[in-house]
Amino acid sequence: MSTHKKRHMTPGGIILTAIAIILAMAFLTPILWTAAVSLKSEGMQITSAFAWFKPPYSIAAYPQVLFHSAVPTWFKNSLLVAVLTTAVTLIITPMAAYAIAKINFRGNRVLYVFFLLGMMIPFEALVVPLFITSNSLHIIDSYTGLILPTVASSLNFIIMVSFIRQVPNELLEAARLDGCGYWRSFIYVVLPLSRTIMITIGIFTFTASWNNYLWPLLCIMSNNLFTLPIGIPQFAGTYTTDYVLPMTANMVASLPLIILFLIFERFIVKGVSLTGIKG
Questions:
Q1: How confident is the model at residue 52, as a pLDDT?
Q2: Over the chain, what HEC string results?
Q3: Verdict on whether the full-model pTM lies above 0.85
Q4: Which domains does the chain have, with CATH numbers?
């Protein structure tokens, strides 16, 4: 006789599953619609919303967007800024978090509260002083101006501090007994244990930089320095009645984030669960 028992879903489980499916469809529908429109021929007559999903399909819009527009330049700018922002963030944030979480010094708690307060201030309230400061440093309309003001994230810092505080002090004390100072303890003990949370922070940082609209809009004046969130609305504005090329450009802009999520999905879920530990 089989000992396997069938698992029956409770009414609550059925309701939650139905809600999850509805929400998934709500999030996926714009992506699927964008993909479907990008595979249509330019100037095609559409009689209903469902006609966008019907054949025939064509990839003719993709070569036009990729080789005969400014989209590749904007794509390169977005990729460069997102990669450098993520790299600098992953260098600075763990070091600052380690100092606050594991090194006792005067002003430790004050600095931590300072970063907590930073989470309560919306970025929109900071753009004017940030612009004035960047202008005085002569980094407006440059890659430096796009990257530096966005690397210090209070949220990333708080997440990292919360995680590093869970690293047992016994491990660090054992490392010091073996002759490791603060730097070597950080590199050989803390960083290896923080791999998952750092991947999560890296993905969040890359996504935020890739989608950043407000600061590049204020910071960049030259068309050759536009990022995708700034360039695509300008590109779409030249096609008032035809959706195919603008949606193709949007699909090109979305592909890196879709691929990133598909590759690192398990790290994102695990990292988010780790940020919920008691800190």
A1: 76
A2: CCCCCCCCCCHHHHHHHHHHHHHHHHHHHHHHHHHHHHCCCCCCCCCCHHHHHCCCCCCCHHHHHHHCCCHHHHHHHHHHHHHHHHHHHHHHHHHHHHHHHHCCCCCHHHHHHHHHHHHCCCHHHCHHHHHHHHHHCCCCCCHHHHHHHHCCCHHHHHHHHHHHCCCCHHHHHHHHHCCCCHHHHHHHHHHHHCHHHHHHHHHHHHHHHHHCCHHHHHHCCCHHHCCHHHHHHHHHCCCCCCCHHHHHHHHHHHHHHHHHHHHHHHHHHHHHHHCCCCC
A3: no
A4: 64-274 (1.10.3720.10)
